[in-house]
Amino acid sequence: MPTTTRPELVVIPTDTRSVIRETRLHLGLSRAMVEHRAKVGTDYMKRLEGGRQHQVDAARLRRVLAVMQQATARGQVPATLTARLARVGKAMAKGGQSPARR
């Protein structure tokens, strides 16, 4: 019988959702474009940004964050927003813990 591995689920804080949304809007990327580049399903960004999913697959979230970070490297994004996105990325790399507020 084949073994199945369950996806690693992480809890997404509200501030992480807002950073992803603000970055996407600032860059002028549509939800569909981010979904396509990150290779996640349709309506994934809508559910992620809207808070409908309290826990998400860590691998998919990392792909979305990687797409956002690549886009910020190419686009004109304020340093504060870039720093917030970097903190979210580091938190996900550490296992999905929420970044500390300052």
Describe how the helices and strands are arranged.
Blueprint: E1 9-11, H1 14-27, H2 31-38, H3 44-50, E2 55-57, H4 58-74, H5 79-93
Antiparallel strand pairs: 1-2
Describe this structure in words.
The chain is mainly alpha-helical and 102 residues long. The chain has one domain: 434 Repressor (Amino-terminal Domain) (Orthogonal Bundle). The protein contains five helices and two strands. It has helices at residues 14-27, 31-38, 44-50, 58-74, 79-93; strands at residues 9-11, 55-57. It has a two-stranded antiparallel ribbon. Helix 1 packs parallel to helix 4 (58-74), helix 2 packs across helix 4 (58-74) and helix 4 runs antiparallel to helix 5 (79-93).
Question: Outline of this structure?
Answer:
The protein is mainly alpha-helical and 102 residues long.
Number of domains: 1
Number of strands: 2
Strand order of the largest sheet: 1-2
Whole-number mean pLDDT: 84
Rg to the nearest angstrom?
14 Å
CATH class: Mainly Alpha
Main sheet: strands, sense, barrel: 2 strands, antiparallel
What oligomeric state best describes the polypeptide chains here? single chain
Give the low-pLDDT segments: 97-102
CATH fold title: 434 Repressor (Amino-terminal Domain)
Helix vs. strand class: mainly alpha
Listing every helix as H and every strand as E from the N terminus to the C terminus, the arrangement reads: EHHHEHH
- What is the count of helical runs? 5
Strand content: 5-15%
Shape: globular
- N-C termini distance: 49 Å
* Helical content band: 55-70%
